[in-house]
Amino acid sequence: MTYYVPLMMNLENRRCVIVGGGSVAERKTASLIDAGAELVLISPEATSPLEQWIAEGRLTWERRGYREGDLKGAFLVFAATDQAEVNDAVTAEAHALGIPVNHAGEGGKGSFISPSVVRRGGLVLCVSTSGAGPLVAKKLSRDLDAHFGEDYETYVEFLSTARKMIKEREPDAHRRAVLFKALAEMDVLASIRKGRFQAWNENKWIAWMDEYREE
After folding, report:
1. Where does the pLDDT of residue 37 fall: very low under 50, low under 70, confident under 90, or very high at 90 and above?
2. Residue 61 CB partners (closer than 8 Å, separation 6+)
3. How far apart are CA 161 and CA 204, in angstroms?
4. What DSSP line would sit under 64-132, residue for residue?
5. Kind and range of the H or E element at 211?
6. I need a labelling partner for 42 at 20 to 30 A (CA). Which of 57, 135, 151, 158 fits?
7. Are the beta carbons of 78 and 104 closer than 8 angstroms?
8. What does the alpha-carbon distance between residue 150 and residue 174 come to, in Å, rounded to a whole number?
9. CA 48 to each of CA 21, 26, 54, 55: distance values in angstroms, whole numbers, following the listed order
């Protein structure tokens, strides 16, 4: 079994090429739109949601079949047609150009696979069976979805704000480490779950940081 290394990629304003216009391409496109990628769809046809996104200007549509050379300048490629030979050709070109590529039909032929994802704001939980059981991965992600509720979105937003405040207001590396450790030990999640949590204003953040200031 292939040993995959998980990565979190920033695709904002990165050119991503999707070859195919069916349901698989639609799913890939949805996540890439949210990521702010520069999207190019290559396909003679497209599903209704894809056409809607095209009409809204969220991606560029090359309304034709794939041709060699279409991947030039791409940061990421998705071979997502229902034709094995086309997916193979797209994958081969991507490999030749050194561009990461996802092969929708046979993941092992590409250089990366897409996991099942659960999102709670900044919290991202990914599940993969390394291609062995995609349906099992989806089931496991549903289990995670049920376990990690909306309260985690508030919690991660709190952590994000805290990290920004600490980095902006504490220049000393040791002091920052002390504050990050204290932050990790705070039981804020329990307060959120009980409905008692209120967002901190700047004064409260400063007061909290001062509590841990060493003499």
Report:
1. very high
2. 41, 43, 46, 50, 54
3. 12
4. S---TTTTTT-SEEEE--S-HHHHHHHHHHHHHHT--EEESS-GGGSS--PPEEEEETTEEEEE--TTS
5. helix 202-211
6. 135
7. yes
8. 33
9. 10, 9, 10, 10
**Which residues contact residue 179 at a Cβ distance below 8 angstroms, ignoring those fewer than 6 apart?**
166, 170, 209, 212
Query: CA 40 to CA 54: how far, in whole Å?
Result: 10
Helix (H, G, I), strand (E, B) or coil at 168: helix
Residue bearing tokens 């909306």: 150
Which residue reads 């508030």 in tokens?
Answer: 154
Confidence at 44, pLDDT banded by 50, 70, 90: very high
> How wide is the angle at C-alpha 145 spanned by C-alphas 139 and 137, nearest 5°?
25
- Taking 3-state DSSP, the helix, strand and coil percentages for the chain, each rounded to the nearest 5, stand at 45, 15, 40
> Phi/psi zone of residue 4: left (φ > 0), alpha (ψ -120 to 50 degrees), beta?
beta
State the chain's mean pLDDT as an integer.
Answer: 93
What value does the CA radius of gyration of the chain take, rounded to a whole number of Å?
22
Q: Which residue has the higher pLDDT, 84 or 131?
A: 84
d(CA 59, CA 19): 13
